[in-house]
Recover the amino acids of this structure.
């Protein structure tokens, strides 16, 4: 669904939560930072969180480091506040375990489990799930009037949105239940040779790793069973927050044909999930209108021809971009909120990011 009351970036910045989605290489991180800065300059208490593993946000904000703890960005007197943080999957996962575990003892057993220590950074879908968990935490704190989320460069928007459900399904799966009775792995083997081979493999792993593989598998699965109810509750709360009228998803795109096609796929996925779509921000758009016949007069003829040839190339790119934006506008039921030009240099410093934020909001 779309927000009928949102047609500009100024309208967008009145929302509580903005989630930027799009494929890699479209300037999503920079756009998220620019939206957050624009919000802060409107005297809002603003946070921007990146879950992009490249962590380019710190460069755009002029920070040396970026961590899970909010870092305050200094703004001019009279402005709002801007804080930035990056997702740390391991720490966020640990905090979630401590929060939803039925007792401190269960949490300690999970933290001590060596399989958990190895897997908590690489658990299937954990980055996307922890992005939603960190978002839940920030919304609960009620410390910010505006939160902007820079999502991972995913191939599908649903990877982020459905991560909580997918992780819950894994915890409740028959595979995890099977691990709670590891002896069945051996007793269920059809031949004695197979049982002997697998048992020998576990013994070799035990010598190499220093711990009992079967025992840790069983302990890992059994303790995680206690967390399923807590995970389900958090997932339901996140799903509700994503569908609030104060939430907006923004599609970040460039005019390249392949990127436009991917953006349209993202739009369909969000629409099918019933998520509130504010619109599209088109990045790196060429805009060179056709020149009159008298253009370039006064220059030497040889130079004039070269200049006009170069300009004609840019005008052709502009026509391509205009056609792509026309396609976007005709195939989605949401406005193009902003069209940003190709910049001579990317906003790699805070002053450049401020100029980018001004462009975003129509300056």
């Amino acid at each position: 669904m779309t927000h009928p009351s949102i047609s500009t970036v100024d309208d967008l910045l009145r929302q509580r939560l903005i989630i930027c989605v799009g494929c890699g290489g479209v300037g999503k991180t920079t756009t998220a930072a620019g939206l957050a800065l624009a919000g802060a300059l409107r005297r809002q208490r603003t946070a921007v969180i990146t879950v992009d593993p490249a962590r380019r946000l710190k460069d755009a904000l002029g920070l040396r480091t970026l961590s899970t703890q909010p870092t305050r960005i200094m703004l001019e007197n009279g402005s709002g506040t801007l804080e930035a943080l990056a997702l740390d999957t391991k720490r966020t996962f640990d905090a979630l375990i401590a929060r939803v575990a039925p007792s401190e003892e269960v949490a300690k057993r999970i933290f001590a489990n060596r399989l958990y220590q190895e897997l908590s950074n690489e658990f299937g879908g954990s980055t996307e799930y922890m992005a939603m968990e960190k978002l839940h935490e920030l919304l609960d704190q009620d410390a910010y009037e505006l939160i902007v989320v820079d999502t991972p460069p995913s191939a599908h928007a649903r990877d982020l949105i459905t991560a909580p459900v997918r992780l819950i399904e894994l915890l409740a799966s028959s595979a995890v239940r099977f691990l709670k009775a590891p002896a069945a792995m051996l007793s269920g083997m059809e031949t004695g040779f197979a049982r002997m081979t697998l048992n020998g493999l576990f013994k070799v792993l035990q010598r190499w790793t220093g711990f009992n593989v079967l025992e840790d598998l069983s302990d890992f699965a059994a303790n995680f069973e206690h967390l399923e109810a807590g995970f389900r509750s958090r997932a339901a709360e996140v799903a509700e927050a994503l569908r609030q009228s104060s939430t907006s998803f923004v599609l970040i795109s460039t005019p390249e044909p392949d990127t436009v096609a991917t953006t349209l796929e993202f739009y369909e996925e969000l629409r099918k999930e019933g998520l509130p779509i504010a619109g599209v921000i088109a990045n790196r758009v060429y805009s060179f209108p056709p020149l009159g016949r008298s253009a370039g007069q006064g220059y030497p003829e040889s130079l004039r021809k070269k200049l006009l040839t170069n300009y004609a190339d840019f005008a052709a790119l502009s026509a391509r971009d205009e056609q792509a934006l026309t396609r976007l506008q005709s195939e989605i039921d949401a406005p193009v909120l902003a069209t940003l030009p190709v910049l001579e240099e990317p906003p790699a410093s805070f002053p450049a990011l401020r100029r980018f934020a001004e462009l975003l909001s129509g300056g």
